[in-house]
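A.,

Following up on our hallway conversation. Structure tokens first:
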């Protein structure tokens, strides 16, 4: 999904559409996997996050539970975050079966386990001045996907071209990427926000039509790649 992609960007969008809708994590200890956590962000119409649902299952008690406090702790407690590893749904299914849970329920059933909703701070985009929309485009939007923790740089090759000094903790922008569809142009930076503490994907979207249908899948795909590189998503903010 970097600038080496074809101009229409179809591989990236197809990959996003084929993934599971929910986010899956394994909770591990020194002896291996202990349980499965499933999450889903609630989104506004323009893809800002407004809430988070978190449910989980551990082999120790064998029942599903829902906990906003656990979802918050995954983002605020470095020790717990180090034990939470993003996985695909097939990987979660294998772990769940291996821990004695049987067949992992479908996503509709898992959503029914979301009882403890965490409301996230939200406000409409703050527009200090009219957006600078380049000629030939209908709208320009700027988003920040905020993450707790820092990514493993080698695992970002799918979404960015790494900066020459990306390994230096003082380097703020560690990589950049771009994608062009038939009508839209997207560019993004992966940025450190305090070494080791937090990072973000800052996305600028120049939309060629009134449709933003390419934007949601792209935000989803960028977030997924970052999750699998280590950090845990916190929120999606829109700046313009």
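Then the amino acids I'd put at each of the 240 positions:
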């Amino acid at each position: 999904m970097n600038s080496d992609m074809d101009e229409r960007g179809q591989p990236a969008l197809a990959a996003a559409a084929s993934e599971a809708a929910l986010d899956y994590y394994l909770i591990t200890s020194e002896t291996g996997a202990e349980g499965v956590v499933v999450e889903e962000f609630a989104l506004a119409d323009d893809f800002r996050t407004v809430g988070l649902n978190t449910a989980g299952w551990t082999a120790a008690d064998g029942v599903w539970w829902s906990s906003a406090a656990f979802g918050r702790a995954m983002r605020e407690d470095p020790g717990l975050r180090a034990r939470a590893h993003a996985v695909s749904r097939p990987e979660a299914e294998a772990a769940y079966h291996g821990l004695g849970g049987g067949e992992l329920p479908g996503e509709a059933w898992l959503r029914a386990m979301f009882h403890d909703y965490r409301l996230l701070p939200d406000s409409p985009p703050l527009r200090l001045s009219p957006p600078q929309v380049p000629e030939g485009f209908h709208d320009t939007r700027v988003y920040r996907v905020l993450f707790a923790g820092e990514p493993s740089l080698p695992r970002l090759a799918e979404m960015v071209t790494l900066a020459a000094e990306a390994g230096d903790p003082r380097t703020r922008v560690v990589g950049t990427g771009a994608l062009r569809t038939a009508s839209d142009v997207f560019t993004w930076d992966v940025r450190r926000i305090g070494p080791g503490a937090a990072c973000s994907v800052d996305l600028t979207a120049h939309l060629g039509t009134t449709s933003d249908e390419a934007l949601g899948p792209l935000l989803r795909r960028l977030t997924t790649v970052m999750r699998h590189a280590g950090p845990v998503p916190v929120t999606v903010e829109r700046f313009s």
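The helical segments are 10-18, 68-76, 78-83, 89-98, 107-111, 215-228. Curious whether your intuition agrees with the design.

B.
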